[in-house]
Amino acid sequence: MRITELINSGLAGAITVFAPIAAYIFAAWFNMRYFIHMFQLNSYKPKVQRKWLADNSLKFFTAHFAVIAAVFALIAFKADTWLISAFVTIALIASGLAKLPKKHYKTPIKYTKRLVRMIITASVLDLLAAALGIIVRFDSGMIVMSFMIFMTPFVILLANLINRPLEKAINRHYINDAERILRECPDLTVIGITGSFGKTSVKYFLDTLLSEKFSVLKTPGNFNTPLGVVKTIRGSLRATHEVFLCEMGAKNVGDIKEICDIVKPKHGIITSVGPMHLESFKTIENVKKTKFELADAVAENGMLFLNTDDKNVLSKADSYSYISYGTENHGGYYATDLRISEKGSEFTVHSPDGKKCDYKTSLIGRHNIINIVGAIAVSNKLGISLEELKPAVRRLESVPHRLELISKGTYSVIDDAYNSNPNGARAALEALSMTDGMKILVTPGMIELGEKQNDLNFEFGEEAAKVCDYCALVGEKQTKYILKGLVKSGFPKEKIYVADSLNDAMQKVYSLTSDGKRKIILLENDLPDNY
Fold it and tell me: pLDDT tens digits for 26-65?
């Protein structure tokens, strides 16, 4: 039956037509909003989104396939039009309700201009398909609307593909503008900072230390992508700035080079090379190659600083002229006499010219000390004496969620929740081992480690068993291999708790008795909403 015939048949006919259309708009919006949010969390990477869909959307596809099959069956058995309409309406409303926004999203959807453009394109595709189906016949309209909700994740990918030429043109405009702004600041010193971990901490530490003498701009938070860097330049760089600290992140070979081509760094710092984002990098050699794209881009009259405590960094160091830093003496800047507790750290830094200076900081962990030494090395080479840096080092604060020590009542939290990786997890466990008290680990495990993910999480469990008194694992599926590592290492099963959520895990560890000891809780990693 045609739509016009139903509408003209009276109120019941009009309801039969417009009820499923209203339900379709409701379901299309909330399903689109959900999947486009996940696409945003997946960095607008179609390949990453497709893998995420394969891993996380079986229930969605199964339920909607069942709805389509049911609609076909109702039509095939010549069910009453009102019955088909009622079934489709109820199914679409249920689909929309299932994707209503959750109040506890850690990273809410951000309605950027790019996202709005994608929503508009996807909406046009949804509405055109539904309109064409309804115009032909009421039955075909019901099938098309049910099918389009089923296809929502792929409609978003198609909208992204359609918008790609426009997005590239817009991005190119922004990049050209950023390059123009940099050209107009010829005296600006750009320092590139990259590494598998530690780069954000070094950036924050450098900002504090260099501000003793220079006007410094740094990329905020984790604005370490090409467009994040461009946004910082266009929005914050002023003619009065003397130093620009540019954090450079990467998930693919060539990502660091892309940023370097924009900012043209004079100096560079490589903090580490480790097994991160192996789903996209595939091999540690590709990670190493990508991080050293910064070394290749450093100006001829510039300086390259390398954390030579990191064996992967050290393995490529001989190909470059560099200044080393760390806790081992490779002829550069290095720390000795480390005294680390949950209250802070003390250490002595030696410089290449034979000078040395004692420092104190409230920060904990060998990993933090290495990062501070890197910041001291750069600052000293740029003209600030070791003695002048002492007050600034004392003022250093923990970078949020990166070995951040938070003391409350009868317990302390070592918050290392940001983007856990094998080397970072090892450093966090080392920091935990140096504390006095009941040592507790709370973790959902590590992600984006490709085919090595299970093995590395298993090793994490083995390492945790050597340090911890209690372990709370967040998510049964995600932490399965950590649990296996703990059990194999002989860790008591009664001291392991597998929680449904982070809140569940924290409530459990808060309730533990510690026989008078202070509870030291290491929060290692916190998975984003798309996991």
Answer: 999 999 999 999 999 888 989 889 988 998 899 999 999 9
Q: What is the C-alpha to C-alpha distance for residues 432 and 415, in angstroms, rounded to an integer?
A: 11
CB within 8 A of 43, min separation 6: which ones?
225, 251
Q: Indicate the pLDDT class of residue 77, thresholds 50, 70 and 90.
A: confident
Distance of alpha carbon 306 from its chain centroid, rounded? Answer: 24
Tell me what the mean pLDDT of segment 195-201 comes to.
91
472 assigned to some structural domain: yes
C-alpha of 65 from chain center = 32
Domain end point (choices 109, 136, 165): 165
pLDDT of 427 over the 70 cut: yes
Task: Read off the DSSP letter of residue 339.
Answer: E
User: And the tokens for 56?
Assistant: 């996380």
Residues 469, 403 contacting (CB under 8 angstroms): no
Same domain, 379 and 254: yes
| Number of domains into which the chain is organized | 3
Close Cβ partners of 147 (under 8 Å, ≥ 6 residues apart) = 68
Q: Are residues 441 and 362 in the same domain?
A: no
The answer to whether 422 and 388 are in contact (CB under 8 A) is no
CB contact at 8 A, 271 and 204 = no
Residue 276 within a domain: yes
Q: Pick from 112, 133, 165: which residue ends a domain?
A: 165
Q: Is residue 147 located within the same domain as residue 203?
A: no
Average pLDDT of every residue of the chain: 91
| Pairing label, strands 404-408, 356-361 | unpaired
For the chain, percent of residues with pLDDT exceeding 70: 95
Cα(476)–Cα(499) distance, integer angstroms: 7
